[in-house]
Amino acid sequence: MKEIPKTYEATEYESKIYKKWEASGAFKGKYKAKGKTFSIAMPPPNATGTLHLGHAVMLAIQDIMTRYHRMKDGAALWLPGTDHASIATQNKVEQLIAKEGLTRHDLGREKFLKRTAEFVANSQNIIKNQIRSMGSSCDWSRERYTLDADLSLAVRTVFKSMYEDGLIYRGYRIVNWCPRCKSTLADDEVEYKEKKGKFYFMKYGPVIIGTARPETKFLDKVIVVHPDDKRYKKYIGKSFDIPWINGKVKATVIADKSSDPEFGTGAMTITPAHSFIDFDLAKKYGFEVVKIIDENGNLTDVTGEFAGMNAHEAREKIVEKMEKHGLIDHIDENYTHNLSVCYRCGTAIEPLPSDQWFINVDKKLPKRGKSLKQMSIEAVKSKKIKILPDRFEKIYFHWMNNLHDWCISRQLWFGHQIPVWYCDCSKDPIVAIEPPKHCPKCKNTKLRQDPDTLDTWFSSGLWTFSTLGWPKKTDDMKHFHPTSVMETGYDILFFWIARMIIMSLYATNEIPFETVYLHGLIRDKFGNKMSKSKPETCIDPLDMIEKYGTDSVRLSLVIGGTPGNDMRLYEEKIAGYRNFVNKIWNASRFVLMNLESKDLKAKFTKSSVKSTADKWMVDHLQHLIKHTTELIDEFRFSEAGNNTYDFFWSIFCDWYLEISKGEHKNPAVLLYTLKTLLKLLHPFMPFVTEQIWSTLDEKKMLILEEWPKFDKFLMFKKEEDLMQNVISAISEIRSTRADLHINNSVKIPVTIYAGTKTAIFKEKAEIIKRMAQIGELNIEKTGKPIPSSVRIFLSGIEIYISLAGIINVQEERARIEKDIKEKQGFLNTLESRLNNKGFIAKAPKEVIEKEKAQQKAITEMLKKLNLYKNALN
RNA sequence: GGGCAUUUAGCUCAGUUGGUAGAGCGUUCGAUUCACAUUCGAAAGGUCACUGGUUCGAAUCCAGUAAUGCCCACCA
User: Fold this and answer.
1) Boundaries of domain holding A321
2) pTM score
3) Predicted complex ipTM exceeds 0.90
4) Would the Cβ of A731 be found within 7 angstroms of any atom in strand B?
């Protein structure tokens, strides 16, 4: 009837289809008629980024779920947005203005933020269009940005409430300080890099101490040894005047179990201001905390002649001086240590004490009697939140159990400025949601806002509910929260997932999501991390979309991947799925060519299913519907996609379409099967399925169609079984021909004795002839062996390929011997099992019955094969 | 140092309640105007890392070993 082009050119259709979807309102998150609606909050990409494979894989998986539920439930929400990513974005803009020779201080806060806003607006558009190019069916009318007014309101609301609950406090603590970003970092924003360096052993009065950082040791005056360390027992509690870097110091020896006798010399001095452990010790014993290194990474005035020098650069000079004074015992030149560096810029971290805002994770909440930590652990332990794969639950618990108070203030400009104001009249902070007009104590109107901003994860921790209108009580909150699934890479389990759980439980008293699906990382062909510095294996999803189409890229990212496991991606894989996309296109093309326009309007019912082949096809399809639905519900997307792929290609195309050629076509079943398959494939490959759908005279777009339902009245077990016999016969004949090197152009005569299955073989004679390239075909119930022929024995069926004049006795003998050997081998294992008393006694009945039946069938076949072999000459 | 994962065909990977090992790519043989050569038909190719255990039966469950990768902690 209709003719569509021979090859599917993805780029011709994709953007048009996307626009049509978007314009039609199909993406809009509607409420399900009954019960809670399926919803996903899209992990917001950084407002600065461009689409990479990490985004591509998350978009593909989330879109599959959203489209599936939209079809199945009639409604679903996928809420998109972007994250301001304070530190990453600020760094990027700083790099940009550096090209103009400017720093952010040259511009000043206001101008710098304006500049950043412009930059963000521009890159947001880029990433948003790239999200569209992946076919993402997200609700753009609900799009959010973490710096939007209402999201910022949510941030300030949570801050104030936490402050009032005594969870947020200001404290003087050691923090991870990045001297380049000039900001604090949370513990998990610190990375460790192995570095070769020197390890210095220094004479410190009665002991020798080891350190990698001599430049922090100026004011050390406490020696710590283990209480049981015999070497030092005599010194404990004593004081010494010790010649040190800048003259004499008075040092005391104390005993504490934190000193490891096995490490170094077993004695250490402590540097309270620049080591987390030493800070804790200093707090424990009440020692003075003096800063040696300042916020710029320079040595402070207490270091005397070294003041103002960069701490790292001063190291060698300090060591030189110590050497001159005989304070160096020896130096280990080959020491590898783990250098802590900033996860954003790679600069070495300086631990230093500073006034910062923290969230107390251990304090029990006034009304709930539990700490944030306890609540967060409970939510997962009780299975209210399920993490897939579940081994990540253990990792989550471990992390949560060891969580320290969360430092939330950052000395950055870009972000949510901390909603705290100060008045000159006192040091007390004024915490408010909206800027206060005057000081509540002295009515002074000149207030200063805390210059710091909040950790970017503070606002993204609110993402599942701040995007739905919280703190207002919105209908969206009611229908969509808690969200159904959080789908993201396992690499941000702590950064983000854990924080969302903490924040949501605190603010809304609800879990943020029911299931966490963690996908793996995409790696290159050799299993390495993809990097732009290796262009030969680095894959840019946008290039691939351009070259192979979005559907192919999506399939290649989903099939073959299992949650929590990394996956390799390479261009050949994408090309393979492009072939599949084209296969679907051409199968549809075939169906269309075999339809009249009246067939498109005809209704499909059970009575449309006529031939045995039709019934075989429709029966298979019911199983596929059932299985695919189950697999998607179980988050097994790879299997669901792969099964449908197999089905489409090797069942629908290779058999049913081939059978349909000639006299046997049934437009109703062809169309029903195609439509059902398009629906099942739509979540995985939305574009090509929608494009084909548009040629089928349907009223609704495929995106809004109903998900196929398994229909037990369309099962035809008996016909399915009969047809399978015909299919095996065709396969066997084809295989035997190829084995015997009989060219396809030779139309060989074949005789089949089909026994009880004679009727179906007679019915399908034409199909068998065509598909197995047979000349003359005789089908009888039984008969005598045909001389000069090759024989195939199936269970209850004998096939004779007459090869008078063509048969090669030697080849045939080899073929038969191989067959006998294989069958004998199988028979042997069957019999040894059936002779095993234990097996008969303990194995389930069905298994035993099955094996007995097989034994009988094979024994019979072997008998025939041997007779045949002996007759060959 | 602690934890986790992976190890299945030449390559990339599936394999959920334990019952003669599967796919795609690649290889080999055969097919040229058939919906599709982005195709079709066929084949070869595997002690399921190793050792032991449980079981009538193990790729699958348990214990141990090895290799690889990842995460956490971090030592003055």
Assistant:
1) 183-352
2) 0.94
3) yes
4) yes
